[in-house]
Structures are given as C-alpha cells and as structure tokens.
User: Fold Ada metal-binding domain-containing protein from Limosilactobacillus allomucosae.
Amino acid sequence: MKAVNNTKLPNDEQWHAIINNDSKLDGQFWYGVTTTHIFCKPSCPSRLPKRDHVLVFTDPQQAIKNGFRPCKRCRPLNRIVNKQIWVDEIEYTLKTNYQRKLTLNELGQLVHGDPSYLRHTFKDITGMTPRERLNEIRLTQAQHLLQTTQSSVSQVGREVGMSNTAYFIDCFKKRFGKTPLQYRRTKSLKPVPLSKGGQS
Ligand SMILES: [Zn+2]
Assistant:
C-alpha cells in the first residue's frame, strides 16, 4: 500500500479498545484496515483485523483523505447507508464469489454488514434473498456451461459452487423445467455442420 500521511499504528490502549469493541473511545480515534481500505469506530463489531494491518486516525476525514472508505456496519461518519448501495455491494460480491461455498455469515464478512440486516435489505429491494439470488446466478452460469462446454453435469455443478450433484440437478429442474442433460440436448439440436468429406 502507498505511503500514508499522518497515521500511526495503534497503541496498546487503542488496540485494546478495538479488540473489545469498546465504545468509550468512539469519537476519539478511528481505525482503518489496510487490507480492505475500510475504516471503523473502535466499537465496530466487524471481524477483528490483524494488528499490523491497522492504522489509527485522529479524525474520520483523515481516513478518507488517505483513501479509506467508511464501514457500512459501524458508520463512522454517522450517515445512513443507502439501501441500494448495500444491494449493489451484495450483488457484486455474489457474482464474484458464486463458485465457492458462501454462507450468509461469510457474505456479511465480505461486505462488512450484519447478516440478518443484509438479508432483510436485499429482499426488501430485490424481492429475493441473497441465497435465492446466489442460486439464480449459479443456475444461469450452469446453463451457459452446459451449452458451451462438454463438462459433465457434476463438473458443471462443481464449477458453479454446487458440488452436491443431486441437489444441483434438483434445483436446475425446478428452475428451468428440465434436467441439465435434457437442457443440453434441447440446446444442441442445431444441425451439426458436416465435415469436408460429408462424413463425420
Ligand atoms: Zn466498522
């Protein structure tokens, strides 16, 4: 990370407050995490960073000037975060992480938000829970892979983060009315171009 002006590492008292989510020092200092570029109040309940990734600021504007973004969970600027911003961030995180196992708690850690609040807000704005949206992203991607690759059904399932093949087939059928294999067959009905000799 580039050089940061006017910042310092936490002293023992500050680090202690961060570990204990101690609100007594809220308003006296703010801390940024150099790996995420997010800054927080001492009392923030987000996952504890490593001490050597923490920088301390004496006011929130100093954090912003150094390229840190306010945490949406503890809201160090005391501003309400627009719901659409949450939704955009969740959507982005689902689309970039759908290939791996992703629980609501992990999603909360990735976007720095309280899991039940995230679920509620996402559903409120989009009509879907994050889990439903994640499945939708996975199944749409599976359609694409079935059409464009020769991967087996279980490989396709694994590639989209659904390693339980029976569950994958079940979800796929519920969503599209066909099993993955039926889907692949109907999508490859186009005539196969003949090879030069007319034989294949
Ligand atoms: Zn925070």
The domain at 81-189 is CATH 1.10.10.60 (Arc Repressor Mutant, subunit A). The chain has two domains: 12-70, 81-189. The CA atoms of residues 36 and 172 lie 35 Å apart. The first strand starts at residue 30 and ends at 33.
